Amino acid sequence: MTDKRAQTLRTLDTQPTAQTDRTPVSKLEDGIRQTSFPSTVLGKSQIGSLGVSAARGHLLKGEGRQVISTYSALYLHGSPGRLALEVEGKERPLHEALPGEITVRGAGVRCEGRVLAPNDFTVFEMPTTLVRKVLGDPKADFADALASVEFRPITSILLSQLVRDLDRVLFESGVSTPIATETLYQTICLELWRLVKRDVQPVDANARPMRLSASVLRDINDYVDATCAQQVDLDALSRLTSLKHSSISQAFKNTVGQTPYQYILTRRIARARFLVETSKLPLREVAERCGFVSQSHLTTTFRDKVGLTPASLREIVQS
């Protein structure tokens, strides 16, 4: 994208509210009510005749005060990024976005924080009324269900592939037919709903789940990235978290929704994907750099998580 196509994202300067509960969607105005995270819009496209759009953008380094919207949204991260967020008045662990990672935001959410490292992204609007129509359920609690996974990486091979396909059709293929984009969008809604409903669990109001702090999660990320070619064991995680072996897995699940193994594997696959798409390194070396015991191990795991082998993906991206 050229600089001429970039447009500065408009901001509305309103005072943040002291209320910490999620704002009811019915009390918000249509569309984006307030957004002050520094960004540029690189392109925008309508999704068939559904009345919703997708936009490619670039999140700039700096502070943001609040985002309030009547519609939920799904984000596809196109490059590494780092965000320190406070959602609904509660601090979240440091979010280090990886290329290909998917996150969501429910309608009516208030978010403040800092962008510590710039990030390219594509955002897809997901109005509750439209999603309910796609689901065939006029009472589906879609926005509320997203609260359980908000601003956390969603690990799903199918969802990741669907979102990437829609992104490419809208912004890279040069040919965007309504039936193709609408079908992809509707399938994404159905898969996302299946995932969030599966992950929503009853909450004990008296329970105080063990979580990793933002600083501890950042230390873990730095350690995993610095030792990507090595195996990370429970002793290392115990030192970084100051937790017993028996407590580490639950703390990870409460914080990022994944076991330690799943979380580390997700980062390694994302790193491998980045190297496959942007470099000409032999796949054997990519495997070594990302902590896989062999090229065949990388190929098997990569195909399981991404849906393609590294060689096939490289051929598609670099052709």
Automatic annotation (TrEMBL):
Molecular function as annotated in GO: DNA-binding transcription factor activity; sequence-specific DNA binding
SMART domains: HTH_ARAC
Domain HTH araC/xylS-type: residue ranges: 218-316
Lineage: Bacteria, Pseudomonadati, Pseudomonadota, Alphaproteobacteria, Rhodobacterales
Coiled-coil regions listed: none
Record's protein name: HTH araC/xylS-type domain-containing protein
Region described as Disordered: 1-26
Keyword line: DNA-binding, Transcription, Transcription regulation
Pfam families: HTH_18
Amino acid composition bias (Polar residues), ranges on this chain: 8-23
Taxonomic source organism: Ruegeria profundi
